[in-house]
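The material for today's practical consists of a large collection of protein records. Read left to right, the backbone structure tokens trace the chain's path through space. An example says more than a description, so a record of this kind follows:
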Amino acid sequence: MSEAAMTEDERRAIEQDCLKLIATYAVAADRYDEDRFVGIFTEDGAWIRPKASLQGHEALRTFMRQRPRAPVVRHVSTNALVDVTGPDTARGISYATVYRHDGDAAGEAPLAGPDSIVEYHDEFVRTPAGWRIRIRRSISIFRRS
């Protein structure tokens, strides 16, 4: 099936599946949910970050296991846009405002404003297990100094 042969309902379903991956990334990262975080990527999926890149499930799993558990972190994802490029491919862009508190947060953490604003550029592919992220590029737009 070519992109032109897709119905609007098929296109919307692909967009929704990819948007769900964007949201799942934020929630899984914030909750230190290693399995969900790794599961949104293809087996050979890559996360390209400004200071270090990770490729493959094992590298992503190691990253999640080594993250300090003390900070309270929330990625507030917004402005997500997915473009379907074919029946098995799509690309997306989204923004995340990242809040972080490094101290003890029994109860509510104090709010001092966002730590950073990040732009994500994603390449999605359909796999036998459903839609997954093949490549996620993180670009730091603003960072608290």
Observations:
- The domain at 3-143 is CATH 3.10.450.50 (Nuclear Transport Factor 2; Chain: A,).
- The radius of gyration is 16 Å.
- Strands lie at 41-48, 53-55, 72-86, 89-101, 116-127, 130-143.
- The chain has a mean pLDDT of 94.
